[in-house]
Amino acid sequence: MKLSYLPFCITLLGATLTLSTSCKKSSAEVPPDNNYSMVDSVFTSGTPEGSAATGADAADLVDNTTFTSTVTINFGSSVTINNPLDGKGVIITQNLGDITITSSVAGVQYELSGTTTDGSVKIYSNNDYKVNLNSVTITNSDGPALNLQSTKRAFIVLGAGTTSTLKDGAVYAASNEDQKGTLFAEGPVIFSGDGVLSVSGLYQHAICSDQRVRLRSGKLYADAVGDGIHTANFIADGGYAKVGNSANGIVVEGGAAIVNGGSLEVDIRKLGLTTLAVEGTDPYININGGSIYIRSTLGKGLQSAGDLTVNKGNVDAYVIYSSATADNPGVSAKKNIYINGGYVGCKGYYGLHTDGNLTITGGALIAYSYTSIASGIDCPSGTFKITGGNVLGAGKTTSVPDANSSTVNALVLGGSSKVMHVGRINNGKEIMTFQPDEFFYTVLYASSKVVTDAQCDLFRGGSVYGNVGSDTVVATYGNLGGLYKTGLYISDGRIADTSFKVSSRITMVGGLTK
After folding, report:
1. Which residues constitute the domain of residue 473?
2. According to the lineage, what is the superkingdom (predicted)?
């Protein structure tokens, strides 16, 4: 058969692929007689399960609150304060560079600017209030730089085109009040604006709220000896947050972590994005959009103490394997995991692990175990159900989908290679094309492309053709190989390693199962 084709896009589910010279060929090099098939990314979805909670609250929108009075504080060689509400409900006291504000009136915003190397701002308020950060730098060697002792909402607005910085010291002065970090709040903290805020925590946490941290827009950079962000609830609707050079990333104690949009980047030593169980609470994680990148060198990636639901968005979570991270997964949940859409790429001792049920109704999941030491997908005690989506797990072993509750067929394949391809014999249609970066004993693949009674060939080797397109989604970190979404597979004159028939809900072609 004579073969001709045009250059086309090759992308990965969740990653851009740059082909190596060993598998990228020009059209002149394509053998004239060959087994070939176009990579097909079409797959079905089932009915979503899990949670659709977004944490929507109109009162968290700064535009829904009117602020009629402005108090300005400018730091420099001295502190300049303009308080139009002096004697009218706003009391400001000053001790050198330390400013304390006590407010009993509504509709007040505080505008902070300038630089102090030994100062702080503390706010008590009976009402919601706004703090505008306009190129302000506050360093406090013996306590929080911004200490919000009100239980009301603090709307922190980052001035457009400005960069503000908050720093604390390693030792705090004794206090009867709670003060757990550089930016500390007893109440909810809602970030918005078009500026940048950098927060460094030498004492404990960088950003800490006893109620809620919400990111609507703006850019946050946090590093700390403890947690970059520590709170009872975390919601990201937009903006960008990066936590680096910290023990832990974003830690939610007893509540929910919800990502509706924006971009989160966490590169830390221990816990990435984590919800912790507290007695009497029901913590969970919902991913409804946005992008999350997590890299942990000593701990866990994306971890829920309750349920984890991914409805949309992109998640890349990697735990660097060492003896210190044995048993630590890239993505995990103490209860159930639901994947209804989006993309989840994960790698760790286990790629993905749940103590409860694993339900996949849509989206794409790629889960790897490091150096084939454990399972790419590990669901040891609950029900593993697939009703849609595109699923690949690779490791030494794999958990197997439940044949009774699943509506999508799965293949368990043994021994991956540089290119692993499954195609249908009778019509040349592609089922799976996979290019890992390392050898795996067992590969699990499931999607609606695995059709009952299909006669299939399994090739270990061959080439994939195409060019990287500008519309690809980029996985910026990790050692994941690629499950191809588009492209053209060529067998390079090979005959199939194995031929088989999809004879049941789970078809075994080698590999090890749990």
Report:
1. 1-54+303-514
2. Bacteria
